[in-house]
Specification:
nucleotide-binding; magnesium; 31% helix; alpha/beta; 20 helices; metal-binding; Acetyl-coenzyme A synthetase; 649 residues; binds ligand 6R9; 8-stranded mixed beta sheet; ATP-binding
């Protein structure tokens, strides 16, 4: 935000949804957790660390003697892979399915914890044969197949840090990440299935590795069977090397602060940041939040997180959270509309999914496709619905609860970041009276608030910047190789507090609403207005499925609001509708928030993790040459939008 003006508090939401009585009565976590954590925050986390199995129990909780460089449970030792796999087998749950895999072409596999233990052990032995040692880095570039989980756990098992790169990223992006992390091994596949076709992965690795001489070997998983280039001596088939390994592997215990992974944030500007996470604190919070926020009952629940493994949500809520908790989960390889728009709901019905975790972008897409598709499937197994990745518009929240959750399933809107490692602000499904569109309350043991430009906490009913006021176990430890950038980016804007980069407001009850990245906030006639609120107002019109709003330079108002909207299934684009939409925003939020221009489009530019790239829309709205488009899912979207744009008035 560029002025001292706080974010205008425009949106009013009066709807409330109490937790279902049955869920509340049997909930894993009750309101007492907030009290306990408030009375003794570090004691609370020390207790949560005991969810894990330690080779050496920690006696220290937090070492904050050199802020902002934290150490959690520093004198404890554990093996993360042992915690995610072996201990469940030892506890007698070896026959429980860990992963129900659903390939896009319809191939399926059920992998039990006992089988997962064998696969991870073989892979760990293979990594050892290839010279991978504690402290090394391994790059992982894979589709959504079970071997992605196995590869990550095998790295953890031998103490090597993985750096997972989105399967959709270019050779350039992969090369720069391999280089930055100095990875000696790359794990990839010939290809994967997307939209009904095999897509290639290996050529990007061949190109990337030709520029990164530190890579000694490329381990290749055969998924599609397509022809690929092969470099003798360097390339090794995964199935060949793992087949000759023993299924026995003794996990070594590592220090709690042993690096577990590096994950590069999509980085809308500048060089990508390698976010470093370590072992004991990270796993404690991933495990606790998965248990608390989804109310996971490992014996009976079937959990499904639709994220890609290359995103932090895949790390914490496909791999480390659910597996440390012994969950049974679904992993789906492909896209939601292959071969038909009901594919996800077919999967929910088939496996009896009870907990679903997805992103607002997907929910808005389903709204656009129409209510009748999910209505054709039996979704009654669902009991908790989660959302992550962007602010969820109140109407999308209501749609999710109604059309997916049968009108009674709680929705938990979970705010967190790659940097925070695990969930930070979220309702608890058995405790919180939910408000559509709000992440509401910091989780037990987490301290967050909203401050103004001068770092003063804002009163209820006002907006500003979201900050985290105390260290937390799964916090990033640094930016890989760049401690100074870590300090500058997160800890310098407000003394002693972590600056998340998100705008937020506190409502009259003190609940937190996330309002998007501060770089996206608009300044209209001296008022800071959040893009999120204007988008939510547009989405609350029955004819709008999705929208993206930007502030474009304007000679009279400083910035003017330009809105891009996607209409719902049957709605027709017309001049009258655009007037109606402007008036609707005016009525919902007030005249100051009325968009100056509204354009209907068929797609919006998004990152692979589903976040709208407003920066590119701002370029379009201001008639500029487009900035970097390399992290877009589909770069043709911008051509379509530009064609649509009438000459500026
Ligand atoms: C987990 C993840 C982090 C940014 C974050 C914020 C946005 C994520 C949100 C949310 C509002 C939520 N974000 N969850 N905004 N409500 N429930 O998405 O990590 O890819 O690092 O993105 O995503 O802007 O700062 P990451």
């Amino acid at each position: 935000m560029s002025s001292n003006e706080s974010l205008a508090n425009l949106l009013k939401e009066e709807r409330r949804f109490a937790p279902p009585a049955e869920l509340a009565a049997a909930a894993n976590v009750t309101a007492a957790a907030y009290e306990q954590a408030k009375a003794d925050r570090l004691g609370f986390w020390a207790e949560q660390a005991r969810r894990l199995t330690w080779a050496t129990e920690p006696t220290q909780t937090l070492d904050w003697s050199n802020p902002p460089f934290a150490k959690w449970f520093a004198d404890g030792k554990l093996n993360v892979a042992y915690n995610c796999v072996d201990r469940h087998v030892e506890a007698g749950h070896g026959d429980r399915v860990a992963i129900h895999f659903e390939g896009e072409p319809g191939d399926t596999r059920a992998i039990t914890y006992a089988e997962l233990k064998d696969e991870v052990s073989r892979a760990a032995n293979a990594l050892t044969e290839l010279g991978v040692r504690k402290g090394d880095r391994v790059a992982v570039y894979l589709p959504m197949i079970p071997e992605a989980v196995v590869a990550m756990l095998a790295c953890a098992r031998v103490g090597a840090a993985h750096s997972v790169v989105f399967g959709g990223f270019s050779a350039d992006a992969v090369a720069s990440r391999i280089d930055d992390a100095d990875a000696k091994l790359v794990i990839t596949a010939d290809g994967g299935y997307r939209r009904g076709k095999p897509t290639a992965l290996k050529p990007a690795i061949d190109e990337a590795v030709s520029r990164t001489p530190q890579v000694e070997h490329v381990l290749v998983i055969r998924r599609t069977g397509q022809d690929i280039g092969w470099t003798e001596g360097r390339d090794i088939w995964w199935h060949e090397i793992t087949a000759r390994q023993s299924a026995e592997h003794t996990p070594e215990a590592f220090e709690a602060e042993q690096p577990l992974f590096i994950l590069y944030t999509s980085g809308t500007t500048g060089k990508p940041k390698g976010i470093l996470h370590t072992s004991g604190g990270y796993l404690t919070q991933a495990s606790y939040t998965h248990h608390a926020v989804f109310d996971l009952k490992a014996e009976t629940d079937v959990y499904w997180c639709t994220a890609d493994i290359g995103w932090v949500t895949g790390h914490s809520y496909i791999v480390y959270g659910p597996l440390s908790n012994g969950a049974t989960q679904v992993i789906y390889e492909g896209t939601p509309d292959t071969p038909h728009q009901g594919r996800w709901w077919e999967i929910v019905e088939k496996y009896g999914v009870t907990i679903l975790y997805t992103a607002p972008t997907a929910i808005r897409t389903f709204m656009k496709w129409g209510d009748d598709t999910p209505a054709k499937f039996d979704l009654t197994s669902l009991r908790v619905l989660g959302s992550v990745g962007e602010p969820i518009n109140p109407e999308a929240w209501i749609w999710y609860r109604e059309h997916i959750g049968g009108g009674h399933t709680p929705v938990v809107d979970t705010w967190w970041q790659t940097e925070t490692g695990a969930m930070m602000i979220s309702p608890l499904p058995g405790v919180t009276a939910a408000k559509p569109g709000s992440a509401q309350t910091p989780l037990p043991g987490i301290s967050a608030t909203v401050v103004d430009d001068e770092a003063n906490e804002v009163p209820d009913g006002s907006g500003g910047y979201l900050v985290l006021t105390e260290p937390w176990p799964s916090m990033l430890r640094t930016i890989w190789g760049d401690d100074q950038r870590y300090i500058d980016t997160y800890w310098s804007r407000f003394e002693g507090r972590y600056f998340a980069g998100d705008g937020a407001k506190k409502d009259d009850d003190g609940d937190i609403w996330l309002l998007g990245r501060v770089d996206d906030v608009m300044l209209i006639s001296g008022h800071n207005i959040s893009t999120t609120e204007v988008e939510s107002a547009l989405v609350s019109h029955p004819k709008v499925a999705e929208s993206a709003v930007v502030g474009a330079t304007d000679p009279t108002t400083g910035q003017a609001i330009v809105a891009f909207v996607i209409l719902r299934g049957t709605a027709e684009d017309s001049a009258e509708l655009l007037v109606e939409l402007r008036d609707h925003v005016g009525k919902t939020l007030g005249p100051i928030a009325k968009p100056k221009r509204i354009l209907t489009v068929s797609e919006l530019p998004k990152t692979r993790s589903g976040k709208i790239m407003r920066r590119l829309l701002r370029d379009v709205a201001e008639n500029r040459v487009l900035g970097d488009v390399t992290t877009l899912t589909d770069s043709t979207v911008m051509d379509l939008i530009q064609q649509k744009l009438p000459a500026a008035p």
